[in-house]
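Q: A reviewer asked whether we had any structural model of the full assembly, not just the individual parts. We don't, so I'm hoping you can provide one. Inputs are below.
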Amino acid sequence: MNHPDVLERLRSVLGRGLITDPKALKPYETDGITAIREVPWLVALPDSEAQIEAVLAVCREHGVPVVARGAGTGLSGGARPVADGLVLGLSRLNQILEIDLENAVARVQPGVRNLAITEAAAAHGLYYAPDPSSQIACSIGGNVAENSGGVHCLKYGLTVHNVLGVKLLCIDGQVLQLGGKLMDSPGYDLLALTMGSEGMLGIVTEVTVKLLPTPPCKRVVLAAFSEIAGAADAVGAIIAEGLIPAGLEMMDGLAIQAAEDFVHAGYPTDAAAILICELDGVAAEVESDLALVSRILKAQGAFNIRVATTVEEQERLWLGRKAAFPAVGRISPDYYCMDGTIPRAKLAEVLASIGQLSEQYGLAVANVFHAGDGNLHPLILYDSNQAGQLAGAEEMGGRILELCVAAGGTVTGEHGVGVEKLDQMCVQFGSAELEQMHRLKAAFDPQGLLNPGKAVPTLTRCSELGGMHVHNARLPFPNLPRF
Amino acid sequence: MNHPDVLERLRSVLGRGLITDPKALKPYETDGITAIREVPWLVALPDSEAQIEAVLAVCREHGVPVVARGAGTGLSGGARPVADGLVLGLSRLNQILEIDLENAVARVQPGVRNLAITEAAAAHGLYYAPDPSSQIACSIGGNVAENSGGVHCLKYGLTVHNVLGVKLLCIDGQVLQLGGKLMDSPGYDLLALTMGSEGMLGIVTEVTVKLLPTPPCKRVVLAAFSEIAGAADAVGAIIAEGLIPAGLEMMDGLAIQAAEDFVHAGYPTDAAAILICELDGVAAEVESDLALVSRILKAQGAFNIRVATTVEEQERLWLGRKAAFPAVGRISPDYYCMDGTIPRAKLAEVLASIGQLSEQYGLAVANVFHAGDGNLHPLILYDSNQAGQLAGAEEMGGRILELCVAAGGTVTGEHGVGVEKLDQMCVQFGSAELEQMHRLKAAFDPQGLLNPGKAVPTLTRCSELGGMHVHNARLPFPNLPRF
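A: Here is a predicted structure for the entire assembly that you could use as a starting point for your response.
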């Protein structure tokens, strides 16, 4: 595509904030899921809302697709560019506009890093709860786009539960003020609709987030199991007891070994699975919960239960979990990180099925995940230099997501749909839900200029896959072709 | 309206569940806000999803408006019938379908009473958190329609934060499965969109709610202040300290006196305002929070701080608050309960302005409200037998809602918009937001058959009011005409 007038108008708006040089465009071809890539026509790096408005006006008038991008850490290809489109990078809008203590909220620009909010609030004893693994780098705008989670979302919720307001710039130039500093807002909940909408309904130019008091006390316990099923069942038993830990993570044998070899966290490498449980609150509450969790873990057959007694030991227990992904990267040339969610009651069953898929495809799987909320992250190990392994990993990943749906779960936990999971949306939803999503998209963006081709598959795509709609644990197509 | 074929088809679907007799229709003419009334053409009382589907099909084919109704306890006229329409009463769908302990959720039909969920879960040490005052009677379907709150929503959130899934029957006959038992769901968040949508997007036929562990310990403290502003500032000080009480309620002098005369709760009738603060959790946490709250209350100038030492005393402290509305009903022939929300920081200022309005209109106001989340419930006392007082109360109520918007707040806290607050929606939102809401409605219900005329005003209505859109504390029209 080449529109001299588009370029000229954008240049006059953006100056050096417009990138057209192919070498400079290259870093924008992919987000965190690097197997999915496309070099965009243009990249715009506005530094004000006024510039964003002007860029959208040009794109609207000339029919140029717009792909919003935060920090580029997304894991489902939500910010993958389109070849004839513009990437709207929001990293320069990185100001914390207000920390309002009386209302316990922060008002920030979309390019502010997740962790920067907590850093700014920490002096006041407050923090922003959702903490994706990428929190040091990922932006709050990207968190809104993907409805991001993190280790602590079991207790504190996803992005949708922690954002009180956004300013949404629509493709028609209208500015919507959605929500604010308060819990409720009248009318249809356009605010919640914006969460997880992957930049397809509008451009978020401001976000107001809830700040929570920093818990005065944290304790961490690690439990080792000789069977994966034992660890899985312990997760359900903890929740069924009425406990909501701040975090409840699980790692299987392969992940344990990889992490231990990498960071020497002191993990029991003879375990088939470990659970790491963090409890937070006031000291007395945490201690009584810790005692109860320890009793449950023991009753569920944990052969080794270790409670960190110092802050250093706590950090060491977490270190292995936090380093698990790069640790797996050390033992395999490539890995593919999946993201799906299942009811806790099905953990043992689904993990066993993933094991069977692993054998069937001849690809090892390491499981490192948010067990408490049933949010699986199977890492499929493969070697892209071995013919067929990438395709095998992708196919197997799709099968895992379909397993999640069949178990009564969903094809995403916290990474969004992007382009990665378009086919599985055909499994998750029937034509009624998907048609309704398309009608809703058209009500915001009738030309379909905002992030085209993401998150919600066309019905044609779904029907080409050979069938649609699973509810009540019926799996429709065992041999899906993959993208 | 009279369509013999409509009646015949509905009769064959519903049998005795179709009401056409004018005397039997009369009880359905209003919901909890009895000043807003209209006798419907028909009332349908289906007892199954299949019947609802069949009723919707008839209405769709014949263009009959459909107003869904739960228990009829709503306070904004959301279930007010339309004269040529059908009221779809959902009270017969009152089954608790499942209590799933491992996932800590309940799956229920829409007609199940709010409190019935907690009663069913109590044996397992669990409960459903949102607790509107009407919880003994109101239905979960109605809670979804209005995004209901309650005393404890400060800590535990509104309906939108506690519902994980709904089954939504659309007017075109499609059934949408939105969410489920899990926290996240891919695609646009149609689930959250359903919350507070007042039956205008579809009919909710099943609801899956989160269950929380019953807190093992509760403590209640009452503090008396000689100035309303002192109590208001104490609310902000408690939150700014990082505490999130389970409930933090405020009553002003008139409400205190009325409640005390009615139930003899032992309230200090010499106080200009009292705060009632409930803390919950494990005992040690609650005790340390209680000590901190007491210190803050004292530092903020409370002249009387009373901590309940027995369960009976706790119940007595709550009794006055819970009986406050009927207590006000004893001292005034009529009262009009408003519902708006403001940032906590503006409590003192807005309460002072409400006092000025009270003088200006010559109508007393009693304030009894959820101070912790800034959710005001001014009760305007009037006598409908005195010429002009009803109109005065309605006009003054509108002014109060506009004050809320001007203070950076919203025109609803937990009662929804219904028909009551249509004019104030013109103050809350600009044409951009309202247009977008109408586009969204059309994407669900292009014929506009579902609960027409509620929640989102037409732009014509707004422009007839003489102006639109306040942001940043500018009040556009001081002398609005009222409905």
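A: Points you may want to mention in the reply: Chain A touches chain B through 90 residues (CB under 8 Å). Residues 467-483 of chain A have pLDDT under 50 and may be disordered.
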